[in-house]
């Protein structure tokens, strides 16, 4: 069955490559790039959703971003000086899609390097576009709970290009050595040795880690309305700081993505091969495979309101007898996954939900997500009855059972406010996230006693929210950019979570088999020992030249569990860093 699935994908891939109707195809921004925020800021200032992209599906295409910003530069009212200068900087770094000629450097290095200000090597003719840049991230820091210096040492190379105006490609390679704060090391330990956002690694020096990062893909436009991307990278679905649907917290993974855009509709199919790290149930050195398939439909219901529906399925098998391959049932791009799951025997993890955003005027936008992992109508009825009694609207319960473990939901609600109080380039975000117990988790299909393969994870890292489940969280972010080359940012995460008590599964650890719970009912929100988490970060960044940043930041983090004073930690971290074509590494958990 796995051979059939891959042969089908290979046939589709080969057919499109041989098609003579291919048109220009863009590469994408790196996941988590700061330009995503800037584009959303300008979209809000424009007063309506962009016709060039649906911001819920990230990363954004470079071409779509440039087309939108070039239009906004002339049509959006009240753009500040900083806005226009940042647009000019973005155009300089994405010259392949800019209509006017790219400015040339007055003093290139050795005649061939930095002929354009933003790229080490830049070549562009009718057959080939190629941009190659070095990647460097050097950081040094101190932590009150650690006598050793914290550091980040990343060296690498990034290249993107386009062949014959038809086939786009991107690759990123970097070698890394790092010593992380204590709470990050605790997270690595809880993830069976996986560094957040990264994959395989080995210990390095004293309390350090050595790891290699590799991302790459090709992208092509099959027709005017259908584009494909195939490679190894991360994806993000949502408008918020967090995503409860699909986040970019985990390691990179192999995927095939099909984007269909027609008018106000954007329909995305994604088929991914995940890794059930660190299980090796079949011997040898291969990690077990698991798979994910998803459908997302985003619709512009009006010039200001965007609504999206999604469904996804995760399937795999962790036992000692056989390994489940890519199930061809889930390759159907237009079917309802729950029906397929019922058809093959209900072994897999299926979820549905929606995303929404409303741009209210030229300064504010409201957004949210609903993630539905599982539900039962009878259980919802029982919970409604219990809620009426709790609110005093009913004297006694009609039904004895309530708070079923099957009610696995997650909610997000947020607001973005740009140019706060009329101050140019001062932006604020307020966001809340609520996730019920056992959300994202699954059961051991084969009864092998191993960790369920179909949990919503990849490489021991969640594909949803980094805290897992059974929590509530508040996020407050402020950004101020008084000058195109200066950024000031503060961010606050405050969360409360119910964690396991005396080994009893309370629904926060999504890698645990939810069959290990105690009973089917009485699983209330935030049940278990109360964990309180607070993380505050303040930082300032200065751009010395295009894509060369100097960062300074201070982090305060407290983490404590009720009635367990020995588990309490309080971290104060100060860090300095130099980034060249590298993204800031944030550990927000």
What do you see in this structure?
- This protein has helices at 2-17, 35-46, 62-75, 81-93, 182-190, 337-344, 377-390; strands at residues 57-58, 121-124, 128-143, 146-163, 167-179, 201-204, 208-221, 226-233, 236-237, 253-262, 265-275, 289-300, 305-316, 349-360, 364-374, 408-417, 426-435, 457-458, 461-462, 471-483, 486-499, 529-545, 548-561, 564-580.
- With 589 residues, the chain is mainly beta.
- It has a single domain (2-103, 113-580), classed as Porin, CATH 2.40.160.130.
- It has an 18-stranded antiparallel beta barrel. A two-stranded antiparallel ribbon has the order 1-9. Strands 18-19 form a two-stranded antiparallel sheet.
- Strand 23 (548-561) and strand 24 form a beta hairpin.
- Helix 2 (35-46) packs across helix 3 and helix 3 (62-75) packs antiparallel against helix 4.
- It is globular and about 75 Å long.
Task: Write a concise synopsis of the structure shown.
The protein has 589 residues and is mainly β. The chain is built from 7 helices and 24 strands.
The CATH class turns out to be: Mainly Beta
Helix content: 10-25%
Instruction: Characterize the main sheet.
Output: 18 strands, antiparallel, barrel
Low-confidence stretches: none
Set down the secondary structure blueprint.
Blueprint: H1 2-17, H2 35-46, E1 57-58, H3 62-75, H4 81-93, E2 121-124, E3 128-143, E4 146-163, E5 167-179, H5 182-190, E6 201-204, E7 208-221, E8 226-233, E9 236-237, E10 253-262, E11 265-275, E12 289-300, E13 305-316, H6 337-344, E14 349-360, E15 364-374, H7 377-390, E16 408-417, E17 426-435, E18 457-458, E19 461-462, E20 471-483, E21 486-499, E22 529-545, E23 548-561, E24 564-580
Antiparallel strand pairs: 1-9, 2-3, 3-4, 3-24, 4-5, 5-7, 6-7, 7-8, 8-10, 10-11, 11-12, 12-13, 13-14, 14-15, 15-16, 16-17, 17-20, 18-19, 20-21, 21-22, 22-23, 23-24
Helix pairs in contact: 2-3, 3-4
């Amino acid at each position: 069955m796995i051979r059939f699935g891959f042969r089908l994908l290979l046939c589709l891939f080969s057919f499109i490559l041989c098609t003579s109707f291919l048109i220009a195809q863009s590469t994408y921004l790196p996941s988590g790039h700061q330009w995503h925020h800037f584009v959303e800021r300008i979209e809000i200032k424009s007063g309506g959703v962009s016709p060039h992209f649906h911001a819920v599906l990230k990363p954004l295409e470079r071409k779509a971003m440039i087309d939108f910003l070039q239009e906004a530069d002339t049509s959006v009212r009240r753009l500040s000086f900083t806005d226009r200068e940042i647009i000019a900087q973005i155009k300089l770094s994405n010259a392949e899609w800019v209509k006017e000629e790219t400015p040339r450097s007055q003093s290139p290095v050795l005649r061939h390097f930095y002929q354009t200000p933003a790229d080490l090597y830049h070549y562009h003719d009718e057959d080939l576009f190629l941009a190659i840049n070095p990647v460097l991230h050097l950081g040094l820091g101190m932590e009150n709970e650690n006598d050793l210096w914290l550091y980040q040492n990343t060296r690498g190379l990034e290249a993107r290009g386009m062949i014959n105006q038809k086939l786009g490609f991107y690759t990123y390679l970097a070698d890394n050595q790092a010593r992380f704060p204590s709470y990050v090391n605790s997270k690595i330990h809880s993830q069976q040795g996986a560094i957040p956002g990264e994959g395989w690694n080995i210990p390095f020096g004293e309390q350090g880690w050595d790891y290699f990062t590799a991302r790459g893909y090709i992208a092509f436009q099959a027709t005017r309305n259908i584009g494909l991307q195939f490679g190894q990278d991360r994806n993000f679905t949502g408008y918020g700081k967090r995503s409860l649907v699909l986040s970019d917290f985990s390691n990179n993974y192999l995927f095939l993505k099909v984007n269909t855009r027609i008018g106000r509709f954007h329909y995305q199919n994604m088929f991914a091969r995940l890794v059930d790290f660190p299980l090796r149930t079949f011997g040898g050195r291969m990690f077990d495979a698991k798979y994910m398939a998803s459908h997302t439909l985003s619709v512009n219901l009006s010039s200001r309101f965007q609504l999206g529906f999604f469904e996804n399925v995760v399937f795999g098998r962790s036992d000692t007898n056989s390994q489940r391959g890519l199930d061809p049932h889930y390759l159907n791009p237009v079917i309802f996954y729950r029906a397929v799951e019922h058809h093959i025997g209900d072994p897999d993890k299926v979820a549905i939900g929606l995303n929404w955003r409303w741009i209210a005027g030229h300064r504010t936008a409201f957004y949210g997500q609903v993630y539905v992992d599982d539900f039962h109508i009878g259980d919802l009825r029982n919970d409604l009855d219990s809620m009426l009694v709790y609110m005093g609207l009913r004297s006694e319960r009609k039904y004895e059972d309530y708070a079923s473990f099957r009610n696995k939901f997650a909610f997000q609600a947020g607001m973005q406010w740009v140019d706060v109080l009329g101050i140019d380039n001062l932006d604020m975000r307020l966001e809340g996230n609520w996730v019920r117990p056992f959300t994202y988790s699954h059961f051991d299909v084969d009864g092998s006693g191993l960790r369920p393969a179909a949990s919503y994870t990849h490489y021991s890292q969640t594909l949803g929210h980094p805290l897992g489940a059974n929590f509530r969280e508040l996020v407050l972010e402020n950004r101020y950019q008084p000058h195109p080359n200066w950024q000031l940012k503060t961010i606050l995460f405050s969360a409360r979570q119910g964690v396991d008590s005396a080994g009893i599964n309370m629904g926060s650890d999504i890698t645990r088999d939810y069959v290990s719970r105690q009973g089917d009912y009485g699983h209330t929100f935030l049940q278990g020992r109360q964990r309180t988490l607070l993380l505050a970060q303040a930082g300032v960044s200065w751009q010395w030249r295009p894509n060369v940043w100097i960062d300074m930041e201070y982090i305060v983090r407290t983490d404590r569990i009720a009635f367990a004073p020995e588990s309490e930690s309080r971290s104060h971290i100060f860090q300095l860093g130099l980034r060249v074509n590298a993204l800031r590494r944030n550990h927000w958990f």
